[in-house]
Write a structure and sequence with these properties.
Shape: elongated
Bound molecules: iron/sulfur cluster
Largest sheet: 2 strands, antiparallel
Number of strands: 2
Strand content: 5-15%
Helix content: 40-55%
Number of helices: 7
Distance between the termini: 29 Å
Length: 130
C-alpha cells in the first residue's frame, strides 16, 4: 500500500496522474478540466462523509510518518498508574486512533500532541526521549 502511494504520488507530478491530482487542482488553481472537477467533487464529498478521509486513506505523508513513528527516538508515553481511563485523549484524537491510551504508540499518530493537552491528570501523558 505504501509503495503504491509513493509511486502514485511521484507520478502525480507527471502525466497521467498529474491530471487527476486534487492537490494540484486546489493549490495550482487548475480547475479547467472536467476530470479535475470530478476529482475535486469526490474529494469534498468523501471529506463530508468520512472525517479526514484524505488524511487517513490517501495522504502519502501519513504513510511516511508511520515509518518514522516506529524508529523515532521521541515517543508519547502514558503513566498507567496516573491514568483514570477517562477516555478524553481517545475522544480528542483528531485521527481517531482507537484504544488510546493503550495504543498511544500507534503508527497512525501524527504527533499533534492533543492527547497531552487534553489530559487533565498532571504528568500522565508526556513526550519522552528514548
Ligand atoms: S486523558 Fe489522561 S487520564 Fe484520561 S484516559 Fe487519557 S491518559 Fe488516561
Ligand atoms: S498525538 Fe495526536 S494523533 Fe497522536 S495519539 Fe495523541 S491525539 Fe492522537
Amino acid at each position: 500500500m505504501l509503495a503504491a502511494i509513493v509511486v502514485a504520488s511521484t507520478m502525480a507530478v507527471y502525466p497521467p496522474l498529474r491530471d487527476i491530482c486534487p492537490a494540484r487542482a486546489i493549490f495550482g488553481f487548475h480547475w479547467n478540466t472536467s476530470l479535475l472537477g470530478v476529482v475535486l467533487i469526490l474529494f469534498i464529498l468523501t471529506s463530508m462523509l468520512v472525517k479526514r478521509f484524505s488524511c487517513k486513506y490517501l495522504c502519502p505523508m501519513g504513510a511516511v510518518l508511520a515509518i518514522f513513528n516506529k524508529i523515532s527516538p521521541i515517543h508519547i508515553t502514558v503513566d498507567q498508574h496516573n491514568c483514570t481511563n477517562c477516555g478524553r485523549c481517545e475522544a480528542e484524537c483528531p485521527v481517531d486512533i482507537p484504544a488510546i491510551p493503550e495504543n498511544i504508540r500507534s503508527a497512525e499518530c501524527i504527533r499533534c500532541l492533543e492527547c497531552i493537552e487534553t489530559c487533565a491528570v498532571l504528568e500522565t501523558v508526556e513526550l519522552r526521549l528514548g
